[in-house]
Design brief:
Order of helices and strands: HEEEHEEEHE
Strand content: 15-25%
Distance between the termini: 34 Å
Number of helices: 3
Shape: globular
Structural class: alpha+beta
Largest sheet: 7 strands, antiparallel
Oligomer: single chain
Helix content: 10-25%
Length: 191
């Protein structure tokens, strides 16, 4: 399998499309270099400009249905807008009142990206386990086909002050929807 990921975020749709086209061309050349028997897919579609600070209640992509703390600290979201089609999906929730910072970050990784995050060297209390939680993060996993288990994560940043259980509740909503979009089964959530 050949997978290429571009981690640079652009608010300019045309620039983001150029980055996606570069990543696509890189994957195609790699697949030709090593004899991969797979179709190249379709051309990168135009990337829609998003609102400057969409409110969490307006989420239609990866952030859809993720509950936010009831303390009005979350003002905006940034999300993967066509979830269910990528090996990596993300959702960030943030605030603008004090610092304009991310407060919470959610991720869904499958295939080689999940494998990269889940290594046996990590040991107990890490993503290597199917589900778990610590003070600032929680994770879950699910079986998605014959490959490695998909990994769903929720993290708060140093700017967040989540109420007790907030991350686990939000992770449950995020992971259930992401697993359903990808046709995953056997979802394991932290207790």
């Amino acid at each position: 399998m050949v997978a290429v990921r571009a981690d640079e975020s652009h608010e300019n749709g045309a620039e983001a499309r150029q980055i996606a086209q570069l990543a696509t061309a890189t994957a195609e050349r790699a697949a030709e270099r090593w004899p991969c028997d797979a179709p190249h897919g379709v051309a990168v579609p135009p990337i829609r400009e998003s609102a400057d600070s969409p409110t969490p209640g307006n989420a239609t992509g990866a952030c859809a249905g993720v509950p936010v703390p009831g303390d009005d600290s979350v003002d905006w979201h940034r999300e993967t807008t066509v979830p269910g089609t990528a090996l990596v999906e993300t959702c960030a929730l943030g605030e603008t009142q004090a610092r304009d910072e991310e407060l919470y970050w959610f991720g869904a990784a499958s295939g080689p990206y999940a494998l990269r995050l889940r290594t046996a060297d990590d040991g107990p209390g890490s993503y290597y386990e199917d589900a778990g939680a610590d003070r600032h993060s929680a994770w879950a996993s699910a079986a998605c086909g014959t490959g490695p288990r998909a990994l769903f994560t929720a993290d708060d940043t140093e700017y967040a002050a989540p109420p007790h259980g907030c991350l686990r509740t939000a992770l449950r909503a995020f992971a259930e929807r992401a697993a359903q979009r990808h046709g995953c089964t056997d979802l394991k959530l932290p207790s």
